[in-house]
UniProtKB/TrEMBL annotation:
Cited Pfam families: Molybdop_Fe4S4, Molybdopterin, Molydop_binding
PROSITE patterns: 4FE4S_MOW_BIS_MGD (PS51669)
SMART domains: Molybdop_Fe4S4
UniProt name for this protein: Dehydrogenase
Record bears the keyword Oxidoreductase: yes
Keywords: 4Fe-4S, Iron, Iron-sulfur, Metal-binding, Oxidoreductase
GO molecular function, one term: 4 iron, 4 sulfur cluster binding
Species in which this protein is naturally found: Streptomyces viridochromogenes (strain DSM 40736 / JCM 4977 / BCRC 1201 / Tue 494)
Gene3D superfamilies on file: 2.40.40.20, 3.40.50.740, ADC-like domains (2.20.25.90), Dimethylsulfoxide Reductase, domain 2 (3.40.228.10)
């Protein structure tokens, strides 16, 4: 007998509501939930394949523990005994920084990943923290931290109301949006055009998104910051600046960008000066407008400057914090809003990596530096001797996977929390597999802070936890206990500790709705079937829409949310400044010192011209990094690991469509089939991210039949955006030749 259950999709940032059809304990069908308050029935191929992702036979069902050199099935107790026995001696002998933690992208797609890693890091006290952010969006966090005093204060375009939208380095028709949570992003762009609005896409490729645009600018890869700086210069030069309130430094920015005229940047960007002037004038003239940059503008040599300039343009045109522009979302689980006023600000480089002295950003070191932090000895500090990898596959997602592959083999001990035995987890001494998504609850902590409409949704597990499985929340709670010297304690103690600490702090804050109350009395009021639900209830009740534990009787709590299974709409984005600002001045600080100090590097780029071919990445609608290549329904078709190159470049190289092409970069070389297309500009080639499933010792039966190649193997990890530590993945020089020809090593 079949039944239906609701589930928020965890397979990309759109967070669409799904209606699952379930036969027994198996998900047999997924469709969009038409009553979902946010997605209103929208679904993409990934969501439609939820059942296939959920039931992948290669998913691990029990823990694996390395014995006599081989990973073998073990009980949960045996696995956590092994974790405690492997990690604690490293901490006690070499100190906490000798234990590295790698957090992968899927952490922000699960409820457990949102609740427990911060507790893990605090308990370990390690500075050896590496995440997917430094091969993705760290420049945006750093620019937001410097501008607003809060690295997580990221404004998003008001897609439903804007009149003019500029997308730079973004392809939401394939990605479904990123750092901008928007179900049916394609529909929103089409609605923008239908109401007479203008869509501009700046991208070296004529992507599906670019084909929809009124204007497509095929900029030279890596010159995003130059183009944006010239647009800002035009706004100042032509008297088109009407800045957002609560901003300081407008005149200083004008002086700092004075040299970046359209004529000065035109040759470097390969965009005519008159076109740049039109872009700036149209942006200023639009009734409302928003500029939005994403991974293509982050993963370049000037990623932080490009991210900063996106906001500078929104600010100079008065479009930051106004409807139709770019606004700050307000999630239901955000902390109680504090009164507007000066804050602590945001600091960079509070510590540095041991080998190359990379500065930390947002408490993280560059993922590109992980291999050298393991395999290189220095006089300063201990190398990373043990590693905890939570939902992370850096052998594929970080530069120079071959070096990292070898480095992982040299560790004293490694733990991987992962449902698969993949290119990274195959090195672990213990693998702890979480259950499939249908057996897990879901609330989007991170993505609701980036949503284009304020709303809140929560879904309990659609299917009971299978016998022998352990909830991901319990896995991570037990992991925390095992590595912090509390092995064997009740995992519920982790949740209770967080509740006690959070309520204890809340009752001391004058602006809190529970100021002066008894934290024990508040804890007794929490509802929920388990520790994670009690924590969610607490966050909702203390949050901006919460009931304040009775202070606001009509407010939110878990019981109210459970009574609305399709979610609760909290309304459109609204202006919030100056309340979100945490800068030392209490204002938007438009020209922070680290930004000003990095501008000479951008000036030097005015004279730089790439020789030969440069490499960029690309996204596929049916893929999300390296996650889903083991699902047959999500591979094939356009989701292929091919090398895009322009017909003129192909002719010059003597390459025909389908021919194998050798591509060589500073980190190594790969061979991929050519896909000749005029959708990419001359002088540029493109390979997708997340492929390369050809290493031995994995259990990815479908992915290994068509493994593709690892584009990150072309990188040696030395090219980083200096402010954020983000890897440079786009605009990278490469050499290409037919597979039969020998390539000259890059210098």
């Amino acid at each position: 007998m079949s039944r239906t259950a609701l589930r928020i999709c965890p397979l990309c940032e759109a967070t669409c509501g799904l209606t699952l059809t379930i036969e027994g304990t198996r998900v047999t069908h997924a469709r969009g939930d038409r009553d979902d308050v946010f997605s209103k029935g929208f679904i993409c191929p990934k969501g439609a394949s939820f059942g296939a992702v959920d039931a992948d036979p290669d998913r691990l069902r029990t823990p694996l523990v390395r014995r006599d050199g081989e990973l073998r099935e073990a009980t949960w107790d045996e696995a956590f005994d092994a974790v405690a026995a492997g990690i604690r001696p490293v901490v006690e002998r070499y100190g906490p920084h000798s234990v590295g933690v790698v957090l992968g992208n899927p952490n922000v797609h699960t409820m457990a990943g949102g609740l427990y890693p911060p507790v893990l890091l605090a308990g370990l006290g390690t500075r050896s923290v590496f995440t997917a952010s430094t091969v993705d969006q760290m420049p945006k966090h750093v620019s937001s931290g410097l501008l607003y005093g809060d690295a997580n204060a990221i404004p998003v375009p008001d897609l439903d109301h804007t009149d003019h939208l500029i997308l730079i380095g973004a392809n939401p028709l394939e990605s479904n949006g990123s750092l901008c949570t928007a179900p049916d992003f394609p529909g929103k762009l089409k609605a923008l055009k239908a109401r007479g609005g203008t869509l501009v896409v700046i991208d070296p490729r004529r992507t599906r998104t670019a084909k929809l645009a009124d204007r497509h600018i095929a900029v030279r890869p890596g010159t995003d910051a130059l183009l944006l700086a010239a647009m800002a210069q035009v706004l100042h030069d032509e008297g088109l600046v009407e800045p957002t309130p609560h901003v300081q430094g407008v005149d200083e920015v004008a002086e700092a960008l004075r040299e970046f005229t359209p004529e000065a940047v035109a040759e470097a960007c390969d965009v005519e000066a008159d076109v740049i002037r039109v872009l700036a004038r149209e942006l200023a003239a639009a009734p409302t407008a928003a500029v939005y940059g994403r991974i293509g503008s982050c993963t370049v040599p000037h990623g932080t400057l490009a991210s900063w300039l996106v906001d500078v343009l929104n600010i100079l045109t008065g479009n930051l914090d106004r409807p139709g522009g770019a606004l700050f979302p307000q999630a239901a689980t955000d902390r109680t809003p504090r009164p507007a006023g000066p804050g602590r600000g945001f600091a960079l480089g509070r510590w540095h990596s041991r080998v190359s002295r990379h500065p930390e950003a947002k408490g993280e070191l560059p993922l590109s530096a992980l291999a050298e932090e393991i395999d290189t000895a220095t006089e300063e500090g201990e190398p990373v001797r043990a590693l905890l990898a939570v939902a992370a596959n850096p052998v594929l997602s970080a530069p120079d996977g071959d070096r990292l592959d070898k480095a992982l083999d040299s560790l004293d001990f490694m733990v991987s929390v992962d449902p698969y035995l993949n290119e990274t987890s195959r090195h672990a001494d213990v693998v702890l597999p979480p259950p499939p998504p249908s057996q897990s609850p879901h609330h989007d902590f991170a993505f609701n802070t980036l949503a284009v409409r304020n709303q809140v949704r929560y879904t309990r597990p659609a299917v009971p936890l299978e016998p022998g499985r352990m909830a991901e929340t319990e896995i991570l709670a037990r992991l925390i206990l095992a590595v912090t010297g509390m092995h064997g304690a009740d995992p519920g103690a982790v949740d209770q500790m967080v509740i006690d600490q959070t309520l204890g702090k809340a009752v001391r804050e004058p602006h809190s709705p529970v100021h002066g109350r008894d934290p024990g009395e508040l804890a007794a009021q929490l509802t929920g079937d388990n520790g994670p639900e009690r924590r969610l209830d607490m966050m909702l009740r203390l949050g901006p829409y919460g009931d304040g534990f009775g202070a606001r009787p009509d407010g939110l709590g878990l019981e109210k949310l459970l009574a609305h299974p399709h979610g609760i709409d909290l309304g459109p984005l609204r202006p919030r400044l100056p309340q979100p600002l945490k800068t030392g001045s209490g204002q938007v600080e438009l020209l922070p010192g680290p930004i000003a100090d990095d501008l000479p590097r951008l000036r030097a780029a005015l004279a730089e011209r790439p020789e030969g071919l440069v490499l960029i990445g690309r996204r596929h609608l049916r893929s999300n990094n390296s996650w889903m290549h083991n699902v047959p329904a999500l591979t094939g078709g356009s989701n292929r690991c091919t090398l895009h190159l322009h017909p003129e470049d192909a002719e010059r190289l003597g390459v025909r469509d389908g021919d194998p092409v050798r591509v060589k970069g500073a980190g190594g070389e790969v061979t991929a089939p050519a896909e000749v297309t005029d959708a990419i500009r001359r002088g540029v080639v493109s390979l997708p991210h997340g492929w390369g499933h050809d290493r031995p010792g994995t259990r990815l039966s479908h992915a290994s039949t068509d493994p593709g190649v690892n584009v990150n193997q072309l990188l040696d990890g030395r090219m980083l955006d200096p402010l954020s530590g983000n890897a440079v993945l786009n605009g990278v020089p490469v050499e290409c030749a037919p597979a039969a020809e020998k390539l000259v090593p890059l210098t």
